[in-house]
Design a protein that fits this description.
It contains 5 helices and 10 strands; from the N terminus they run αβαβββαβαβββαββ. With about 180 residues, the protein is of the alpha/beta class.
């Protein structure tokens, strides 16, 4: 059986189609278990890989989607989701139970239970990004805007820090008429 036909991967494929998107799940010969593995297999920049990280905030499971070249700032996770409490990494069995996916293939969509979700805004640097698709040999391609829409995730520019040697991402914002030069 192809990995594309596994029930966990089918959930991701179905979630894409249900959201009005193309089924962009691809099976790779090489593993995508880590961000580095995925970037090498896909042939993209490390930052274009979406790491799906599960945590517990005061015993409530949450997910952070972080660029492959960034690290989660755990001390800012709860605040990003407007939650309070102790932040901890759950056990692999807890992740499987709450998401329906095994670590190394945890997808941000097709979850068995909805989770509060925060998205690292630095992923906006890329036209196309790649996330795990339910199996360590499967990923899917998506735009940042579509990922934000279908996950209903909170976008945060402070939930992750660039790894050593990676330039900080500074988004550009349009100024309102009030702050434009020459406005009445």
């Amino acid at each position: 059986m192809s990995n594309l036909e596994r029930p966990s991967v089918k959930r991701v494929r179905d979630a894409l189609v249900s959201a009005g998107l193309e089924d962009t799940v691809m099976e790779m010969a090489e593993t995508a278990r880590t961000a580095q593995d995925a970037a090498a297999a896909v042939g993209c920049a490390l930052g274009a890989i979406v790491k799906s990280l599960c945590y517990s905030v005061d015993n409530r499971f949450v997910m952070a989607l972080v660029a492959g070249d960034h690290s989660l700032a755990e001390d800012r996770l709860a605040m990003s989701l407007k939650l309070n409490g102790k932040v901890r990494r759950p056990q692999a069995s807890e992740v499987k139970g709450i998401t329906g996916f095994t670590i190394g293939g945890v997808a941000p969509i097709g979850l068995s239970h909805p989770l509060p979700l925060v998205i690292d805004g630095s992923l906006k640097r890329f036209e196309r990004i790649y996330a795990a698709a339910g199996h360590p040999h499967c990923v899917f391609e998506i735009s940042f805007d579509d990922l934000a829409r279908i996950t209903d995730g909170v976008i945060s520019y402070t939930v992750a820090e660039p790894n050593e040697g990676v330039a900080p991402f500074r988004p550009s914002f349009k100024r309102s008429k009030t702050f434009q030069q020459g406005a009445d």
